[in-house]
Amino acid sequence: MSFELPALPYAYDALGPYMSAETLEFHHDKHHQAYVTNGNNLLKDSGLEGKTLEEIVKESFGKNAGLFNNAGQHYNHLHFWNWMKKDGGGTSLPGVLASKIDSDLGGYDKFKADFMAAGATQFGSGWAWLALKDGKLEVMKTPNGENPLVHGATPLLGCDVWEHSYYIDYRNARPKYLEAFVDNLINWDYVLELYEAAS
Ligand code: MN3
User: Fold this and answer.
1) Distance from the CA of 119 to the center of ligand 1, in angstroms?
2) How far is the CA of 8 from the centre of ligand 1 (A)?
3) Could you tell me which of 35, 98, 95 has the C-alpha nearest to residue 68?
4) 27-53: b or e for each residue (b if 16 or more CB lie within 10 Å)?
5) Which residues of the chain are modeled with pLDDT < 70?
6) What is the distance in A from the centroid of ligand 1 to the CA of 32?
């Protein structure tokens, strides 16, 4: 396979005021594009050319750092654009998500606090996650382009806490960005779709 940059699933200005068009233009058109371009170059002669993106991420982890960083970030960003939507967030979660979060994570408020803490305490660049591992929801954090796939879990929701994701809109206030993401941007329908596919 080769990596391709998808169009955003919404207009560049759709997520304002929580994420600006300027942030999305840089983040999607420059940063994600660079992962696609560099990933395709590093995929050549890697021995993983015929694999799926998930296989490339898992099989390059710990073995081919350059390819892993770019393939991991391509995977993460493909989902990240879909993990957000206009008028997202909120506390009425679709399907079984509310009861699953109650039973596995101690309720929505505890999930929100733990997810924001994961993002705020990730030192340097990385991601905060809600993932499914052995049938149970878990809040996780990872550095750089790593994701739950390489820790035996399925990513259901991720928030990009690299500075390029929030510095234009929030400057250094990463917790404010995380709160806006949870309260106003999360596309819970997409989270449910991934949960149902994984369970
Ligand atoms: Mn990013």
Assistant:
1) 13
2) 14
3) 35
4) bbeebbeebbebbbebbeebebeebeb
5) none
6) 7
Domains and CATH numbers, the chain: 21-82 (1.10.287.990), 95-198 (3.55.40.20)
- Is the pTM for the entire model greater than 0.85? yes
Say how many Å lie between the CA of residue 103 and the centre of ligand 1: 31
- Residue 57 in tokens: 């991420």
Pick the closest to residue 116 from 77, 193, 174 (CA basis).
Answer: 174
CA of 81 to the centre of ligand 1 (A): 10
Centre of ligand 1 from the C-alpha of residue 193, in Å? 22
d(CA 152, CA 133): 7
* Residues within 5 Å of ion ligand 1, judged at the Cβ atom: 160, 162
Number of C-beta neighbours around residue 13 at 10 A: 14
- The token pair at 62 is 């710990």
**What's the pLDDT score for residue 93?**
97
User: What DSSP state is assigned to residue 70?
Assistant: H
For position 196, what pLDDT does the model report?
98
Which pLDDT tens digit goes with each residue over 36-58?
999 999 999 999 999 999 999 99
Q: Which residue from 3, 60, 12 is spatially nearest to 32, judged by alpha carbons?
A: 3
- The C-alpha atoms of residue 124 and residue 10 are separated, in whole angstroms, by 29
